[in-house]
Amino acid sequence: xxxxxxxxxxxxxxxxxxxxxxxxxxxxxxxxxxxxxxxxxxxxxxxxxxxxxxxxxxxxxxxxxxxxxxxxxxxxxxxxxxxxxxxxxxxxxxxxxxxxxxxxxxxxxxxxxxxxxxxxxxxxxxxxxxxxxxxxxxxxxxxxxxxxxxxxxxxxxxxxxxxxxxxxxxxxxxxxxxxxxxxxxxxxxxxxxxxxxxxxxxxxxxxxxxxxxxxxxxxxxxxxxxxxxxxxxxxxxxxxxxxxxxxxxxxxxxxxxxxxxxxxxxxxxxxxxxxxxxxxxxxxxxxxxxxxxxxxxxxxxxxxxxxxxxxxxxxxxxxxxxxxxxxxxxxxxxxxxxxxxxxxxxxxxxxxxxxxxxxxxxxxxxxxxxxxxxxxxxxxxxxxxxxxxxxxxxxxxxxxxxxxxxxxxxxxxxxxxxxxxxxxxxxxxxxxxxxxxxxxxxxxxxxxxxxxxxxxxxxxxxxxxxxxxxxxxxxxxxxxxxxxxxxxxxxxxxxxxxxxxxxxxxxxxxxxxxxxxx
Length: 518
Known about the structure:
By secondary structure, this protein is mainly alpha-helical. It has one domain (1-209, 293-490). It has 18 helices and 4 strands. It has helices at 2-20, 28-45, 47-57, 71-112, 117-144, 155-167, 172-209, 214-236, 247-275, 277-284, 286-317, 335-343, 349-372, 391-415, 417-422, 455-460, 464-490, 510-517; strands at residues 374-376, 379-382, 426-430, 437-441. It has a two-stranded antiparallel sheet. A hairpin with a 6-residue loop joins strand 3 and strand 4 (437-441).
């Protein structure tokens, strides 16, 4: 099954990249890099469900370990999952700090240079060296950063927490890698706050509202063309007697001519869309889009409520800021944390749900990036447009998705903390009577010899200060989602050619979209 899944991921990445990349500016090396980085992001997102499944699979429903799951086998499985994390995370470090920056700067130099490959490589390596230096600094800091969790009054509980992290390993090399990945996860948190939170509101509302009619837009566009042409004629009529136009009139003529070219490009695109079979198919499935939109907005609201309750639980019952807001058990439950234990009774519904949640976060992130474009603070760097996206923008998009995937695990943990920690594991508790046992779900303070913690949980909480940053990031995520929901509700329908025709486009770019409409 894994080779089939891997092939499906590669096919999806190839189709996605080819759908958005510019035909005139496409390059083999940038295309391969974008496809590979996107595939790594999707494969990394699958680690969390696999991790939860493996720790759950080692135990029976009555709380006992399966016959084959002795101490050595359990430890071997845990180590295998851990090495899987470190392998994929090492690849992510390689992509973020070396490969993607090198390809990006190489392509930037290729646009400015006249074809001197050696010069392009040298300049790209020079700029990439800065990223490598940052990576080296993070690795050095991570190798020697103190990991001691501050002592608390309840020493018994905190000794158990410390023991969990001691079992996670104390190798300086693994700690350095963990620190570097956690640093990138904080950046991924900022990207998730910016793009995923907005995408969760924009994607379903765009499906519900739909787009304007191509025929109606053509009618309005034709009226705009006639109006601009009339204004041009009135201004040019001033020089019929041989008098030259004033500088103000010349500037106005130039602006109107540019506006006219843009309107005529819109006319060609609208005509192509109106005649395309794809448009007719989309109109036929319009009711289905509305149903999906309503479903997605319900899911988004469910996630937001669950995240709010989870964060509120940490605010009220956690050990505080200097412990990374680690919570010693669930006090305020949330809808998702209640639903997953119910689904555990029917295999594999809980794993299907957790995998769906992970994929939902990734696709809403893609939708957010596509709607907003790529920004650096208040400066818009690139637009993501079908068939017209520059290679540099695709590389940025894939890097952002890599960083968001790193943060996805903590988002899932925030939504269902107990489930992410132990899956469906149960343990036996001896009652007062010597021969009576009670079966309970595992939670943080469960007996360490009876419950196995997922590697995901330990990885997320290895550094308490990063956990504290994630906690505050969740509040920011909720706030941005609500703001995005209000903005998306107030906005009208999108144009059927939204973002596909801009004034800075050339007439040659019209051919790049024709493949989608014919």
